[in-house]
Amino acid sequence: MKLVIVTAVEDFQKDVLKLFRQANIESFSSSDIDGYKNVPAVLATSSWFPGESSGNESILFFSFTEETNIDLLFKLIEEFNSHMETNNPIRAIVIPIEKSI
After folding, report:
1. CA 86/CA 79 separation, integer angstroms
2. In sequence order, which residues have a C-beta less than 8 Å from that of residue 53 and are 6 or more positions away?
3. Per-residue model confidence (pLDDT) at position 36
4. How far is Cα 40 from Cα 79, in angstroms, rounded to an integer?
5. CB–CB of 73/92 below 8 Å?
6. For 43, what's the count of Cα atoms within 13 Å in the CB-facing half-sphere?
7. Which pLDDT tens digit goes with each residue over 22-60?
8. Rounded distance, CA 38 to CA 31, Å?
9. Confidence grade of residue 95 (pLDDT, cut at 50, 70, 90)
10. pLDDT exceeds 80 at position 78
11. CA nearest neighbour of 53 among 36, 69, 41
């Protein structure tokens, strides 16, 4: 069993849910998050309130699942990202679980 964590901009929430379903990942959790990127100083100072930083509305999914499901999920995400027209790919990481109850 491993922990897979997936992040995406909120616009891709339905796409991530579809990818989870295709990868046979039926149990998962999600949370709304703000995503940030470091912006060049010129862009940061051109805002009305340069001291303020606003994030992109994003979502984080995580699931404890089997490696075979994760392998399929990664293939599906790679395929999805290869056809993306924006600079906001779906990101995923895997963390091995040493113990669980």
Report:
1. 14
2. 36, 44
3. 76
4. 30
5. yes
6. 6
7. 999 999 999 999 877 765 554 545 555 555 556 678 999
8. 22
9. very high
10. yes
11. 36
Within 10 angstroms of residue 65's Cβ, the number of other Cβ atoms is: 21
pTM tops 0.85, yes or no:
no
Other beta carbons within 10 Å of 77: 20
Find the angle CA(49)-CA(52)-CA(57) to the nearest 5 degrees: 120
**Segment 8-31 mean pLDDT:** 96
3-state helix, strand, coil split of the chain in percent (to 5) is: 35, 30, 35
Task: List the structure tokens of 36.
Answer: 């940030």
Containing 60, the helix (H) or strand (E) segment is strand 56-65
